[in-house]
TrEMBL record:
Protein name: Betaine--homocysteine S-methyltransferase 1-like
Task of the protein: Involved in the regulation of homocysteine metabolism.
GO biological process terms, semicolon-separated: L-methionine salvage; methylation
Record keyword Transferase present: yes
InterPro entries: BHMT (IPR051524), BHMT-like (IPR017226), HCY_dom (IPR003726), HCY_dom_sf (IPR036589)
Source organism of the structure: Salarias fasciatus (Jewelled blenny)
Cofactor notes: Binds 1 zinc ion per subunit.
Name of encoding gene: LOC115398613
Binding site for Zn(2+): C227, C309, C310
Amino acid sequence: MQSNYQPLQSSVHGLNILCVCLEGILERLDAGEVVVGDGGYVMQLERRGYVKAGHWTPEAAVEHPEAVRQLHREFLRAGADVIQTFTFYCSEDKLELSGNVTDISGAQINDAACDMAREVADEGGALVAGGVSQTPLYANKGSESDVKAIFKKQLDDFLKKDIDFFMVEYFEYVEEAVWGVEVMKTGGKPVGATLCISPDGDRSGVPPGECAVRLVKAGADIVGINCHLDPLTCVRTVKLMKEGLEKAGLKAHLMVQPLGFHTPECNIGGYVSLPEFPFALETRIITRWDVHKYAREAYNAGIRYIGGCCGFEPYHIRAISEELAEERGFLPPASTKHSLWAATLETHTKPWVKARAGRQYWENLLPASGRPKCPSMATPAD
């Protein structure tokens, strides 16, 4: 794969800006490189006025391509090595159930989303991942053959485009994820698979370690966790998946793309069952400094594909890139407008702000919410 994106000639804190990715996802992971994923799309685009909450379908890829393209570019500039197609919940049964669109097909969305992701990825030498997610049909007790037919239809759309690898993401049941992996594996490209489960396991009670074993046996090259719970909880769950693989004598690369909100309640249902979901989650947003800690924890756990999901903004992805800059050997373009650990505050005119220039202050800060009558935790509905 060739890139038309030229590395910048400047540097920040002695590190070069930008690195051009010319190898596939497995080649990079096999070499022990850190792969930074992109962030969340549906929540960010809902807040910007392009996605309708509830079913969270991705018709904006056709209706408002400029909005999706801009978010792709912001993640790329923040250091993402992978741009995922905006095809979350793009199965025909989900689109029909949502009622959000009546004149746009899943094939049209997949087509536009793949072209956009490729366009932006090529601007920075990134890879493109074509993603499928859980289906209403499975939740309604659909048969294996019928659910697989939905995945096959999406796979056929992806194979018409320039996709580097496939992502089976956001599955609450490992059984359905296995079906997705089995279908996507027939496409002849690497497959990553992530579940949105807690350390207690999937919705059927299958432990994380066993989930990982089933996914790898189905053909997944990369396994891990995405969404539903906060970063450190997701890292903990991936560690359990790693233990399960080791006990079974299986190998796979590990990935994590967690929620960008604090969820200390750590329930099986995840943030969807919190009373603040989906329109009052702002006070739970993780800080960039939280992301530094998460990225280091993930790296130390042996996870090399590290990104974000719902709630992860471009500045969060930049924080991953900056925390792991020494390991990667470079900083992203967005770091030209950001100083590591707030060093730029050294020039501030107010002494109390100037005193905040440094890692020790931000690593030890306990941020206040500014809401004295609000509880620190809630009671999940599920």
